[in-house]
């Protein structure tokens, strides 16, 4: 609970629904996954970082934008796996 409150106050990406401070990583992941979906490139991405650093938020924002693109939406197959 304390982590969530601090994250909202300092990172702003949970409170505003926007990502803060990781714009480069966002653009890179978006382009990588877009090329994979549209052009069939065989790409993999490993997103690493400490717990609570925004890995899931980053991926969810990228997937949301991808599903809003017509050319991607037609070819994208989204599968969520949870190792918990």
TrEMBL record:
A single GO molecular function term of this UniProt record: DNA replication origin binding
InterPro entries: AAA_16 (IPR041664), ORC4 (IPR016527), P-loop_NTPase (IPR027417)
Listed SUPFAM superfamilies: P-loop containing nucleoside triphosphate hydrolases
Gene3D superfamilies xref list: P-loop containing nucleotide triphosphate hydrolases
GO CC, one annotated term: nuclear origin of replication recognition complex
GO BP of this protein: DNA replication initiation
Residues covered by the Orc1-like AAA ATPase domain: 18-68
Superkingdom classification of source: Eukaryota
Pfam family, one: AAA_16
Full protein name: Orc1-like AAA ATPase domain-containing protein
Organism per entry: Mycteria americana
